[in-house]
Amino acid sequence: MADIIKVHFSYQEASRDVCLDLPSDTLFDDLTPMLYKNDYLIPQKPGFYYIVKNHLCGARQRLSDYIPDGVDTLDVQVFGMPQIMV
User: pTM above 0.90?
Assistant: First the structure.
């Protein structure tokens, strides 16, 4: 697995998708501030959650937890966290 991977984010409320080159050991918990900084997400409470291959990703999991050997790209769907989930 590569140390740096290309991560493709899609969010249905955004006008565009975004791709970032990120270290494979990045925590999902760190993605939201990065996406705010890149003007991709508008801050909202209670926040966002991430899905990879129909799996809800835990905040303390790393991108590398979802990357099979030999793959250096990852597709991540972003969803606003509804109030009921909090």
Answer: no
Q: Are 2 and 72 in contact (CB under 8 A)?
A: yes
pLDDT of residue 47: 87
Domains of the chain: 4-85 (3.10.20.90)
Q: Check: CB of residue 41 under 8 Å from CB of residue 11.
A: yes
- CA 38 to each of CA 22, 42, 79, 86: distance values in angstroms, whole numbers, following the listed order: 13, 10, 17, 26
How far is Cα 52 from Cα 61, in angstroms, rounded to an integer?
A: 12
Q: Which residues of 10-33 are buried (b: 16+ CB within 10 A; e: fewer)?
A: ebeeeeeebebebebebebeebbe
Quote the CA–CA distance of 28 and 58 in Å, as a whole number: 7
